[in-house]
Amino acid sequence: MQRVQSRALTCLHSLVSSMDADSLGGAAALQAAAQHLSTLVFGAAEIPKDEEFLEAVISAMRSLLQMIASKNITQCMTPQQLMSLSEAATRCDVVSVRVNAVAILGITGSTLAKEKGTAETLQMIGSALLQVSTKDTDLVVNGEALDALFDVFADGDEAETAAKNIALLPALKALQPIFKAKIRKEGRGKYSPQQLCVLDNIKVNLRRFIGYLEKVVKK
């Protein structure tokens, strides 16, 4: 049964990626679908361990949440669900699952950053992303976590407060030379040219983002 669900979820991911929100039923339908997918992950006593199923459901969730965010529709995942997702992803051996889980944190966080009273949740998201960016063994996942951090803390009073509370600037300054060295040491031979290109862009964006945070601190 779970294999059938996995195939259906893969189809859903493809549909969401190729259709607009109205064709998929509008805001209410998208929220309902995202909420249903979250119950597939969080409704049981523990996060599913079947990697194919987890990869399919998290990919579909990412697509749905991305569309929801792009239409400024209210997100439907609770902070507890986000943290559970993050913790489950860090224990998963499948890189794409970890990448998509990190992306979901970024999508949700960037939406929450536009709302009032979300600094505490943004701190949780930021801390989780920092953890992944420094401790995950895969550079692609490290890069995705950094990219998500850039999105979450790009702008807004809530994001500024959260960034200060988790000491984001010094953490990224400490990480910067490590990330650069890791790309130089592990990049060639282990990652594709396309992945290396993305990682190089993230490296440049990290430098720029640190510069942005330094200006914010001086305000």
TrEMBL record:
Gene Ontology MF terms in the entry: unfolded protein binding
Residue ranges occupied by any SYO1-like TPR repeats domain in the UniProt entry: 1-216
Pfam families reported for this sequence: TPR_SYO1 (PF25567)
Highest taxon of the lineage: Eukaryota
GO terms for biological process, alphabetical: protein import into nucleus; ribosomal large subunit biogenesis
Family: Belongs to the nuclear import and ribosome assembly adapter family.
Protein known as: SYO1-like TPR repeats domain-containing protein
